[in-house]
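The instructor's notes for this session suggest beginning with a concrete chain rather than abstract definitions. Hand out the sequence below and ask the class to guess, before any prediction is shown, which regions might be ordered.
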Amino acid sequence: MNHEEVQMPGYAKIPSFINDLIDRCSTDTFYVSKARTYTLSDLESGALEHLGITSDGESVQHTEAVVPEAINGRWSRYNIDGRLFIRKDLPKVEKVIGGWEVPNFGDWKRGSHVHYSTREVFRKEVWYAKQLPILIDVEDTADGQVTIGFRVDRVFDRTELDERDLHLAASLLRENLNAHVSIVSSTLSVADWLDDQQVTWELLPRGEASFTKVLTRLKRAPGSPRLKTMQNRYEAVEGFHPGAVIVGEGEFSRYFGFKFREDLVVLENLDYGNALYVMYEDWTALSRRSRIDLLSDPEADYDRIIHKEGWENHLKAVLTLKGHDVTGGEEGSRGQSE
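After discussion, reveal the predicted structure:
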């Protein structure tokens, strides 16, 4: 484990977003999973060495499966050694203690008897060791980066869900990847799953773009009050003279946004529309990540602007600070895409 970064713990309980992902899964059976993109230099410096994944700067070396070592964290230790869980959330129960021989009336000459007593104690629950491996699938490297898929080697069935094992699997993966986890259908091929992590962006020149066309690309019908709000936001950002409109669809989310320059992009999410994101040089990599994963990473290079009163002025200030002419003058024309 790279101890230079703050390690994320496991989950105190199964979070609601995981249950939501399970409900939205296309099949009843699924894996606890996560796909992340790393630079080869990160791997070379040991970012995933604790999972047996390394790099020489040109390629990635890894095993197909690994049981994380107990030293990686407490959930890794539970996975290997099991866990004795004190259930302080439940009422105490009576427990018989003793079973030792004592003299009758304090006099051994008068014989003896076995003494017992009872007291109230917390219940104990044993989580037996599962020794679940993490399956590792690595895509081909491109531009000094590689996308790696991680799956806990346990197929879950939502029709008869083992919540204890789900809790262990999710916490084990989160602890070892330092990121929130996701789920993936057990019937989806690894290649298709990893391909789904890539948000495919389509560029719409401003003269050909409209909010209606964006909804068509994202297979959404206009007319709902929520989409009317999104349209108002679309028109507000468009007023700052972006070079092009972009639309894209990832594993669980639909995005639209505005490309001002190659290193200056504003993104909105149709599924989670409470904020927009201003991203810079790493925007294509950042846009592959889930909202929860992004929010939990203090090192990610982006600005998040919540849609509250005055958000337009906040965005205007950020764009201006980054060198974009929001009036559509000469500086703004640099954002026109080829």
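Then share the key points. The CA atoms of residues 201 and 323 lie 24 Å apart. DSSP finds eleven helices and 18 strands in the chain.
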